[in-house]
Amino acid sequence: MANSWRRERWDSFRLLTPNWQSRLPGLGYEGPDPDGYMTMGEVTEFIERFAVLSGAPVRTSTNVTSVRRTDGGYDVTTDHGEIGCRAVVIASGACNQPVVPKFSEAVPSSVRQLTPFGYREPGRLPDGGVLVVGASATGVQLAAELRRSGRPVILSVGEHVRLPRTYRGRDVLWWMDASGVWDQRYDEVDDLTRARRLPSPQLVGTPERATLDLNALTAMGVELVGRWAAVRDGRALFSGGLRNVFSLADLKMRRLLDGFDAWARTSGREAEVGPPESFEPTRVPESARLQLDLNSGEIRTIVWATGFRPDYGWLDVPVVDEKGRLRHDGGVVDSPGLYALGLPMLRRRRSTFINGIEDDARDVIGHLAQDLAVRS
Amino acid sequence: MTTVANGVNVQALLDAREVLKTAPEAAQFVWRASSKWQNGVHSTTTVKEFFGLGQEQTHKNEAVFDADHPDVFAAEDNGITPIEYLLVGLASCLTAGVASVAQNRGIQLRSVEATLEGKHDIRGILGADADVRNGFTDIKVTFNIDADASKQDIEALVAQSQKRSAVFDAITNPTDVTVEVA
């Protein structure tokens, strides 16, 4: 139970969402710090409490090795025997495997390579410089933590989502929730493929509620370079397009915040928030390096924070597209009786957050129950 | 949306995007150019045919480009220098992008002008200093855009145009290049 929270997170990990937003059907946060962010251990306890409360018949320590279609439903093979069922809900998540670019194979063996699954804390890395690749939530958090440990850190930055931790005195995720951005539906957005591929925002949950954007990292002494494009002759080659990924992120953040401002005005919520704030554009380094000699010893470790993908190796039903994504319409998979929950923007922008499961589950299970009723 | 006329057939591009999602082989294009040495550092390069959508294609007209070096390089200046062609490519690609994105976003353009500056330390190509690279040190593009849009929306047009630019990508990211003798 809560396996990925227990085993696939680094030691300092905290949720991005404030405690008051951590809610599951019938279970809300009741602790002393509603504005804080749960640690890994607290998330695990929260899920364990929900397990007791819901009384769902969970079979723990049971791996599913295959799901096959049968005449009336599905045959689920586990390492503890088979289960025949009429319907299956896939809730195995979108982050089962770290994604690492192919050119990582050309990195010299003297440099240690890690993914977030293998990373625990700075002390376990070799001494010396670290190249963190990717500037989403994971990348910025690990870059900051490694820099604080005293190591030289270079962060390779591609397209990213910049957000302040708080805006006008409120957690930015309060705005997402209250203004209705999180309720935008999958069948209402312009480009669903893009919305589902959106990288996680540059946020960290800390007691100080500090913003961890690229300017904060620059101030800590993290060196920014462009997107890592290739390895040639033992050298990492970085894109010269850094300014534009900064511009794109700055503009998108402002558009989002302008939307929050408009919502506050029109919904009469101005009194609940502070005055509008503006943020300094992302500072462009004097001269960003375009290459780095991986054999020079400057970098001893590479941390690939380049995203995750789901693993459907166990799913013997032809419902996975050529990019390895499940084909589904709002969680209704392209095979009768097969459903999904907990994927990016499954039905709403909040789908992958703990507080996003309730509405999605109600919709998806509604479809499932109706389907079973029709078939019986 | 329909009242905006920037002269870009965005619908055709959006349709093509949908079709090519399921037919990636048709999306494979090959652009071609062939050049001929004239004299000194003067050469002419012609462009006419290309491959795309599964078959050979041809431009309406053959285009011929002279490249040379200026007087200060002790050459005849029969055409612009090869590295200046990179600026031509970047300027025209980003401008095309601005027009397309503006059309797609319903923004009427009145004028789009860009000035480009590529800084170049020629000690590299002369072999005068092994630490100086041959290519541009850096490139600066400055757009002047008059359009029915806020400054923020115009900045977003220019940002999106870079995001989808073939030449911006080709210049800012490494490309595997093979040069051989036939």
UniProtKB/TrEMBL annotation, chain B:
GO molecular function: peroxidase activity
Keyword presence, ATP-binding: no
Keyword annotations from UniProtKB, A to Z: Oxidoreductase, Peroxidase
Short name of one Pfam family: OsmC
EC numbers on record: 1.11.1.-
Record bears the keyword Oxidoreductase: yes
Stored SUPFAM superfamilies: OsmC-like (SSF82784)
Name of protein: OsmC family protein
Organism: Nonomuraea harbinensis
